[in-house]
Amino acid sequence: INAEYGGSAAPGNGSTTCNLCSAGSFSGAGAVNCTLCQPGSAAGAPGAASCDKCKAGTSTQDKEGAASCTPCSPGSHAEGTGSASCSVCEAGSFSVGSGTVICSLCKPGSTSVKNATVCTLCTPGTHAEAEGSSACAPCDKGRYAAKAGSATCAKCPLGSFQNKTGQVNCTACAKGSFQDNTGMAECISCPSPRTYTTYSEGSTKYSSCKGPLLEIGFPKQTITVRDVYKVDMNESADFFVRSGDWMLRSQADPLTENRLLKQGSLVRINKGEKLLVENVMPNMFCYKDPEGHGRFFEGYQNLDVKGRPCVDKGLCRNEDSDPMGPHCLVKSDDGKLVKSPCGIPKCIWDVDCYSYDGTGYRGSIGSGTVGGTTYSCQDWSSNRPHVNFYHPNAYNTAHFGIGAHTFCRNPAPRDVSKPWCYTTSMWVRSVECDKIPTCTNQDYFHH
């Protein structure tokens, strides 16, 4: 028997012929039996003297005796030759078609799970900076990703913040705060938040904070005052009003012994006095909305809500009682003169509560209680049912808020120390308005 060549075998003694090895097996010269191809190799035709290694991108799927190698399915790969099985693509990579040799890495801004055939874009609020990322990471505080597929998270711009992770936007700084850096997790409060505010959201600089400022210059020190302050004048001092108007009141008799200092004033106060230094807030840094939407506002603000200067060195006013509140004329982007709001906030003091003797109260409470019975207010412009000595006129309206309405007011501070009104009852002439709280430590602004 000729056994010089492989690919066949004679299994027993006395064989007159050699049988060809079937596909998926092989033999060497003089073989008694054919041998199955090992995993990772194949013999496609009968009579093979050896098995061929699987090409890259294919495998025998861990089978012996394979007649052919199978291309790796999508989501897997075989990098070298002779692979017994295909390996799944790792997280952060993928393969689309069959027979992949090397999985492709996901691009920045996307990721994948194992055995993936496609990469998925990072959702808004997350990012994947590196190629082949196995997971998208949430944006840090102070950053955001507005769209899907972000490779990096953007910093919050000036005037905004983000105090949570994984967010799609940033929040504008509220009135009374600002932020002059990018990528921040919180805004910076204005000094003395009770008396200082900003006139718009999203302020980007400290100078946007507006409020009263008084400097008291003693020989050895200067005191900066931003809110009500008691000072014993043990020595003389210079009072310099940098912002707003201020009242200097006697601690012993604050209602009758007082002096108004206007913005820009510089006065010398001699020693020996005990003063209550009080910042003027209503109609100076906020406006009383019931008074014609700030008709009597007289602050020094000269910029509109967008920071544009009032033309002709004008100030924010509302003499026409426009519902937009204090405003001024500014130049628009196209050069036209337009009326624009100044962003002045509404007052809490002397609207939601009353201060001192209540002459400045401009709220909308219109009743009072006597002996457990509540009585409604008579209209100030009427003489029924009671004769009224305080009808609306220019003086009473400007100084006491008297008008054609039924709200509590105090046009008689020498006789009454809180808001009051005439009643609509024939039997009760007047009543003090006991439902109005006294202004103490409330904030000054409605935001």
Which structural traits does this protein have?
38 strands; 1 helix; 4-stranded antiparallel β-sheet; mainly beta; single chain
Shape estimate = rod-shaped
Mean pLDDT: 94
Task: Order the strands across the largest sheet as they lie in space.
Answer: 24-23-26-29
Please work out how many helical segments DSSP would assign.
1
Cα-atom radius of gyration: 43 Å
Instruction: Give the number of DSSP strands.
Output: 38
Helix proportion of residues, in percent? under 10%
| Class by alpha and beta content | mainly beta
Low-confidence stretches: none
Distance between the termini: 107 Å
Major sheet details: 4 strands, antiparallel
Provide the β-strand percentage band: 15-25%
Please, could you describe this protein's structure?
This protein has 1 helix and 38 strands. It is an all-beta fold and 447 residues long. The chain has a 4-stranded antiparallel beta sheet with strand order 24-23-26-29, with no helix packed on it. A 4-stranded antiparallel beta sheet has the order 25-30-27-28, with no helix packed on it. Strands 1-2 form a two-stranded antiparallel sheet. The mean pLDDT is 94.
Brief digest:
With 447 residues, the protein is an all-beta fold. The protein is 2% helix and 25% strand.
List the helices and strands and how they pair.
Elements: E1 8-9, E2 19-20, E3 25-26, E4 35-36, E5 41-42, E6 52-53, E7 58-59, E8 70-71, E9 76-77, E10 87-88, E11 93-94, E12 104-105, E13 110-111, E14 120-121, E15 126-127, E16 137-138, E17 143-144, E18 154-155, E19 160-161, E20 171-172, E21 177-178, E22 188-189, E23 213-217, E24 222-225, E25 229-232, E26 237-243, E27 246-250, E28 258-261, E29 266-269, E30 274-279, E31 327-331, E32 337-341, E33 346-347, E34 367-370, E35 373-376, H1 394-400, E36 420-422, E37 430-432, E38 445-446
Antiparallel strand pairs: 1-2, 3-4, 5-6, 7-8, 9-10, 11-12, 13-14, 15-16, 17-18, 19-20, 21-22, 23-24, 23-26, 25-30, 26-29, 27-28, 27-30, 31-32, 33-38, 34-35, 36-37
